[in-house]
Amino acid sequence: MELPKLVAITGTNASGKSLVGIELAKAFDGEIISADSRQVFKGFDLCSGKVTQEESASIPHHLIGIRNIGESFSVADFQELVYSLVPKIQARGKMPFIVGGTGLYIDSIVRGYSLHIETPNYELRKELEELSVDELQARLNQEGRAFLASKPSDYCNKRRIIRVLEKISYGEAVEYNNTPKYDVLLIGITWPKEILHRRIEERLAQRIKHGMLDEIKHYLDNGGNPEYLYNLGLEYRYILWFLNGKYASLDEFIDEMSRAIRSFAKKQLTWFRKNKNIVWLDTDGDYIGQATELVGDFLLRS
To answer: Are 147 and 140 in contact (CB under 8 A)?
Structure first.
């Protein structure tokens, strides 16, 4: 049986995913589902790089600002919501576009992971977060060790080890089983390193200019939890350090955070490059036109 068609647009930080998604949604009468693990939370619009009100006014966007800060949201939650949203979008005669840089979210839909939503075991998570990587690795069972050993970067990634240990505690299989529900065209966008680094720096400067630091300060001044910010990572963590006086100047802070974002973009690209199904846009040319042609051909294909 022919699977329903979806289009997913992914890529690195500051690559222009949102712009590509909006232009494609305009061209093909679509709606956008965000695949971003931070944009799902209310507030922190600049920190998480949400689309502006003007950008979202022309095209309906989903899964942005749907959880309160501090609430849990997992890849299984994302997948369940997408599976609920897509038929509704299609029933309106619209084309669903999934747009975002959270690779695991994208993969959960493209590959159709068989996931289970469990109530988070916060006591277990707190206990595990206090352990070192070596101590966490020692708690893995044979299945968990084999799974992480096949992904060398994950085997030393504390967050990934904790997630595997949580799955083991729930009695879940560590390895994902795949049952795709959709025929997905997966489009990727990034830039040559020098251009991408410049885009990251320019984007960061604009976000700071428009009040990114104030978002964090306002949250903390109103009783927000610093530990939650720290666990969100990247911009949140660096801004928290800056507000706590870790950096001697704003310039030093910006340099350090730019470096961290560039490093994260490199890790994103490493993740994406493993997926041979991604069709990468040629940013040396008319990449919007290329993307439009790709989607048009995909929708005509039986």
So the answer is: no
Q: Which amino acid would we find at residue 247?
A: Y
Tokens of 226: 């610093």
Looking at residue 72, what is its pLDDT? 84
CA distance 189 to 14: 10
What the chain holds in terms of domains, given with CATH numbers, is 1-115+180-207+275-302 (3.40.50.300), 116-175 (no CATH), 208-265 (no CATH)
Please state, rounded to an integer, the average pLDDT across all residues of the chain. 90
What are the DSSP calls for 60-98, one per residue? -EESSS-B-TT----HHHHHHHHHHHHHHHHHTT-EEEE
Q: What SS3 state is found at 178?
A: strand
Contact 185, 295 (CB under 8 A): yes
Contact criterion met (CB below 8 Å) for 31 and 94: yes
Can you give the pTM of this predicted structure?
0.82
Contacts of 291 (CB under 8 A, 6+ apart): 9, 20, 23, 24, 187, 281
16-38 per-position pLDDT tens digit: 999 999 999 999 999 999 999 99
Cα 198-274-65 angle, rounded to 5 deg: 60
